[in-house]
Amino acid sequence: MKLLLLGCTGxxxxxxxxxxxxxxxxxxLVSRRGNPAxxxxxxxxxLAESWQPGSALAEALNQAEGVVNLAGEPIAEQRWTPSQxxxxxxxxxxxxxxxxxxxxASPTPxxxxxxxxxxxxxxxxxxxVFNEASPAAADFLGQLCSEWEAEAAAIPSSCxxxxxxxxxxxxxxxxxxxxxxxxxxxxxxxxxxxxxxxxSWIQRSDYCSIIAEALSNGSYSGTYNATxxxxxxxxxxxxxxxxxxxxxxLLPVPGPLLQLLLGDGAAVVLEGQKVLPERLQQxxxxxxxxxxxxxxxxxxxxxxx
Length: 305
What we know:
By secondary structure, the chain is of the alpha/beta class. It contains 11 helices and 13 strands. 44% of the residues are buried.
């Protein structure tokens, strides 16, 4: 397939792009930054000017058979100041709105759009179990994800839509695990906050495989929780990571310290939610890493450093 990829030049793209290329897909990447990819359009897809008829981006869309939209500023890496909240919204909602409008206006719209979302859709709970039918939370992340998904749903019915509500993606070279590894390797790691909060995680290889399968398999349609089938509490996660590294995991990271660093963004790791991938399992998706111990062993193996 000819694929147009938005938001795929960073942490996820480092594994996704080679996987799709190896499968024989023809890739065009969109980025606001420089990138060594051969087929790269440098622009800001959140701007209407980027999608004007005759522009490089509009022409690439007209030629694309499939689109992957993972664009969005990181949610849990900065304080949620008013300006940061506006950026979190615009980088997702505006980008997706412009993309959906361009697909609707295209004389040759793509066959499939795979668009990102997040398990923050469901809000935080120490006890509830969420599946794809669970409603959106009324908090900031819940409403952000709900609006994000609504913009993606504005595409024509002729274009198949797949939405992935993504959990915490595990790989050693970025994301939450990448930030935790130096502390744990030094022997100072431990549960963050109470340790009782749920972490709905997925190994990056499985996440990229979901994307590849959903693009090529026409039976994938609608919303899916992109999480492993066995979520873990923070305490369980830190114990498993300590075992994978052969290091103790005894010293808890105080919640107030995390709140000082991240502000409201600390809620992503201090509260959490238990999310199950019911639709992926019904679809028959085969997880290579359904269990946390194997996922962490793979992510922290010497070949991944």
